[in-house]
Write a structure and sequence with these properties.
By secondary structure, the chain is an alpha+beta fold. It has a single domain, classed as 3-Layer(aba) Sandwich (Aminopeptidase). Helices cover about 30% and strands about 35% of the residues. The protein is built from seven helices and ten strands. The strands form two sheets. The protein has an eight-stranded mixed sheet, with helices on both faces. A two-stranded antiparallel ribbon has the order 1-2. A hairpin with a 2-residue loop joins strand 5 and strand 6. Belongs to the acetyltransferase family. RimJ subfamily. This is GNAT family N-acetyltransferase.
Length: about 230
């Protein structure tokens, strides 16, 4: 398939370089982690995990209309998937499913992709509570970050995390992101305006790659050769 081309004020470039893509695997304590585009057939497992993990996830996610059950029931997935697919086709988003040993385990998204002279995106992710502490989120962030700076041609990635979300703070730190500052009353989460710590990384900080850094630090392993 040939990528569409965008002729904007800063020159001509592919509409969505680096998409679609399959990334990994990378072996961590929880298993073999890989990223792939989200699929319509992910809906049943997506809904099962998110309904089960309400207490684990809801306190960190933006306030949204409707009940948790309505927003995360099986019927909520098709319109969400269609929206993500449309954004990806327009080059505004790279929506990945996280898999562990081949099974759906969560999502990681490079969103609000801006090209031209900025070339940036934000990073958001969630992982099943059953895999918490197993290195899955860190591996997913490293895989997505390498891809963003290589095939997708981005220059800067940003992430924001509530100060109370210690697990996610650790994920970003281990994945190579640096803290930049504190955004006061930044986002409406769980019904109130919450402070968030901002993290970022740029292509100049990549070195040999964030996956390579995890492997060198003993936090992940490459897959066994077949």
């Amino acid at each position: 398939m040939t990528s569409q081309v965008y002729a904007g004020p800063y020159g001509t470039e592919p509409r969505h370089p680096g998409w679609p893509a399959k990334l990994g695997p990378l072996v961590v304590r929880a298993g073999s982690v890989a990223l792939r585009p989200v699929h319509l057939r992910d809906g049943r497992e997506w809904s099962r995990i998110r309904l089960r993990d309400r207490e684990y996830l809801e306190k960190w996610e933006p306030t949204s209309p409707g009940s948790w059950t309505d927003r995360n029931g099986f019927g909520a997935w098709p319109p969400q998937w269609l929206s993500l697919r449309a954004l990806a086709r327009r080059g505004q988003c790279l929506p990945f499913a996280i898999t562990v040993d081949g099974a759906f385990a969560g999502q990681i998204t490079l969103g609000n992709v801006i090209r031209a002279s900025l070339r940036s995106a934000w990073v958001g992710y969630w992982v099943s509570s059953e895999l918490a502490g197993g290195g899955v989120a860190t591996a997913a962030v490293a895989l997505a970050t390498d891809h963003a700076f290589r095939a997708a041609g981005l220059h800067r990635l940003e992430a924001t995390v509530r100060p109370e979300n210690v697990a996610s703070l650790r994920v970003l730190g281990k994945a190579g992101y640096r803290q930049e500052g504190l955004f006061l009353r930044y986002l409406d989460v769980a019904g109130d305006w919450r402070d968030h710590i901002s993290f970022a990384v740029t292509a100049e900080e990549m070195g040999a790659g964030f996956v390579a850094r995890l492997i060198a630090d003993g936090k992940a392993q490459p897959p066994e050769p077949r």
